[in-house]
Amino acid sequence: MTLDELMNDDLRQYIIQATSQEPPLLANLRHETQTQTPFGRMLSGPVEGKLLQFLIKLSRAKTCLEVGTFTGYAALQIASALPVDGRLITCESRAHHAQIAQKYFDLSPHGHKIQLLIGDATRTLPRLDQQFDFIFIDADKINYPTYYDLLLPKLSSGGLMVIDNALWGGEVVNPVAKDSLAIHTLNQKARHDSTVECVMLSVRDGILLIRKL
Ligand SMILES: C[S@@+](CC[C@H](N)C(=O)[O-])C[C@H]1O[C@@H](n2cnc3c(N)ncnc32)[C@H](O)[C@@H]1O
Question: Which of 14, 141, 174, 183 is most buried, by CB atoms within 10 Å?
Answer without folding.
Answer: 183
